[in-house]
Write the structure tokens for this entry.
Amino acid sequence: MLLSDNVERGIMVAALLVFVLLLSVLVPLVLYLLISNEIANPTLVDRETAEREAKAQGGLGTRGRDRDADGRAGPSADTNGRASGDTETNSWGVQSPRGQRG
């Protein structure tokens, strides 16, 4: 009796181990396949079409530095795309006094 109980326990442990190993392989594989199917055929459009589609889907519209809250044209941008004024906004959106790096 004692030997058969140990054998049954061993079989259950082995079955559980096989199940866990299968899950550890299958879950990442399924995620990989889902992601690869999502990005397999990207839609390439020009900037105007992309902006129009983004606005139609509830995008934010124009950037805040280009337009005021009421929709009027904002300050002009310099050659680097920064709004004119006494502050600069870096690529992270952090403002600093013009001429300083930060």
